[in-house]
């Protein structure tokens, strides 16, 4: 799923990504090589190395998605709905812009720079 998603963007669009040590990231070398992304791993038991992710997880749990939830039983419509909600909330860390605004500004910039 990650490989497919990264394939939608120009190479070098993403500079780096930090994973935890979950087995779902076992294909990290393929992602790194195919998309030219530097990959880092947080040390086990140190959520402070991925604070934005941990904050987002906490908010998701407060909104009814327990840590123990098995996502294999959740349909894509539900996941997309939650993601859409989260991406339209203004963040102080983004100067009160939404994550989707910031992301789309980078996409637009990458698109136009490829035209030149």
TrEMBL record:
GO terms for cellular component: cytosol. GO terms for biological process: DNA integration; transposition. GO terms for molecular function: nucleic acid binding; transposase activity. PROSITE patterns: INTEGRASE (PS50994). Residues 1-107 form the Integrase catalytic domain. This is Integrase core domain. It comes from Pseudolactococcus chungangensis CAU 28 = DSM 22330.
